[in-house]
Amino acid sequence: MSSPGSMQELQEGSVCPLCACYFEDPVTTECGHSYCRGCLVTHTGRKQSTSGQLICPKCGRAMSWKGVTTDIQLGVTTRIARRLNLPAPPKRKKFGAQGLQ
Ligand SMILES: [Zn+2]
Ligand SMILES: [Zn+2]
């Protein structure tokens, strides 16, 4: 995935799986999955707390909030995608409500 890629790749790589919109303050979990910070907080139903655990909505891995890092690179990518004024990302099935494992 190191090739420049198409616009579509850029677009799809900038979309949060939880809200199906461009990332807002993107973070990456220990397992390498990315979400908006707000979406992840909402999904886990917890405010950020140093002791709180969270379950990755995608792979179900349990980890602590300490393992979640701000994804600067993704933030840049998302900004580029926004600046290019790409069309709205393709609608995807909403996760979350369906209880991913
Ligand atoms: Zn989101
Ligand atoms: Zn994961």
UniProtKB/TrEMBL annotation:
Residue ranges annotated for the RING-type domain, each copy included: 16-59
Keyword annotations from UniProtKB, A to Z: Metal-binding, Zinc, Zinc-finger
UniProt cross-references to InterPro entries, sorted A to Z: TRIM/RBCC, Znf_RING, Znf_RING/FYVE/PHD, Znf_RING_CS
Pfam families: zf-C3HC4_4
Tagged with keyword Metal-binding: yes
Top-rank taxon, per record: Eukaryota
Protein's recorded name: RING finger 39-like
Lineage of origin: Eukaryota, Metazoa, Chordata, Craniata, Vertebrata
